[in-house]
Amino acid sequence: MSGNPSERETRIRDYIDGRLSGDELEAFEMALFHDPVLLDDVEATRALQRGLRELATQPVIGQVAPKPAPAQRLLPMAAAAFLLGAALPGALLWRFATSTSGGKVQIVSVETFRSGPEQPVAPTYAIDAGVDRVVLEFGALSVTGTDEFTIELRRGDAIVHREHALKPDADLLRIDVSADRLGAGDYVARIVARSPQGGETEYANAPFAVKR
C-alpha cells in the first residue's frame, strides 16, 4: 500500500484547510451534496484532525495537569477510534458527545456519527432533575446548494419535536425541546438538508437514549 495520499484525499484536505476557491470550491461542495460517501470522508477527516489537535494540547509526561472535564477524558478514546476507522475499511466512525447544564437549561452536544450498514450503539444521556429545557446540538456541514435543515426528533413512530428552517451556527444545528417531552427511552434525530428549490436529502440519523 502506498504511503502517498490519493488525489481524493488531497482534495479533501485542501477543502478542509480552505485551499479551494472559485469554481473548484463550488464543484467540490456540489459533489458533497450529492455524494454521501464523499461527505462521510470529509467528516471523518475533520474529526480526525480535531481529535489530533486536542491531543496535541494535552500535557506531556511529568507536567501537572488540571483535572480534565468529562469531554476531555473522552478525547484519547475518540482519536483512537478515528485512527482505527481510517485504518480499517468499513469501520464505524465514533464521535464523542458531551452534556452540560446550568440553571434550568441543559445542553446535550451530540456530534452525529455516520456509519455503514451496521447500526452504532446509541449514546445515553441523563436529563438532570429540575431542568425545564434541553438544547440538543448536532454537528452539521454547510454545503453549497443547501438552504436550510429540518430536524425531526422521533421516539418509535411518534414525532416528539420538529423544527424547520434551521441554519448551521459554527457548524452546529440546535433545537430547543421541553424537558417534559424527553422521557426515558430511545430516540432518533432525523436531519434533512433542504435546497432552495425545495428538494430534500437526508443528511444524517442520530440515535440516542435518555434516562431520567
UniProtKB/TrEMBL annotation:
Keywords: Membrane, Transmembrane, Transmembrane helix. The chain crosses the membrane at residues 74-94. This is Zinc-finger domain-containing protein. It comes from Tahibacter soli.
